[in-house]
Amino acid sequence: MEAQDPLKDLADIHLPDPVSLWPLALGWWVLAAFALALLVYAGLRYAIHWRGQQRLKAALRELDGAYHRYQQTARSQGLGGNAAGLEFLHGCNAVLKRVALLHHPAPVVARLHGEAWLGFLDSRGNTHDFSTGSGRILGDGGYRPTFNGDAAALHTLCARWVRHAYRSTDRSTDRSTGRANGAQVSP
Q1: What are the Cα distances from residue 149, in Å, to 112, 146, 153, 156?
Q2: Which pLDDT tens digit goes with each residue over 34-58?
Q3: How far apart are the C-alpha atoms of 159 and 65, rounded to whole Å?
Q4: Which is nearest to 82 in space by CA: 127, 141, 1?
Q5: For the chain, what are the domain ranges?
Q6: Quick one: DSSP state of residue 138?
Q7: What is the pTM of this model?
Q8: CB 81 within 8 Å of CB 149
């Protein structure tokens, strides 16, 4: 008798189907949702920061513009430049008030004037330069008949306060109020 091969009737080895990436397992869906939420959060934070930086630049540009107009007018008028000085003083107060309205509750900030306004600026800027230094002139600036302040020191002080207001807003965790009463900084 002839020997028969017993393996001849066996079927060939069947490989399993390749593993598909789809449908994803639950863990991948959770990871994707978390990554998407993280990207949205980072995008919103960046947008808020970018908008704040644009507002900061606009406020500083307006302060610089008022200061340069004062310098040009004071140079052309000689030593005096009283009208230009009063206009510069008004410009500084206007920029500070708009920035304050943007970062603090409107009912508190809108009615401040005189000593209360200077105290507010000092407390929010961690300084005493508004109530005792070169910023003192802002307290009664709208009622002054003459401008006799140090414009360069006032410009530096106001720019520092504006930067501090935006820096402290970047660090704060309460952004729920956003802009107060639609106040805008840009001209």
Answers
A1: 21, 9, 9, 13
A2: 999 999 999 999 999 999 999 999 9
A3: 12
A4: 141
A5: 28-171
A6: G
A7: 0.71
A8: no
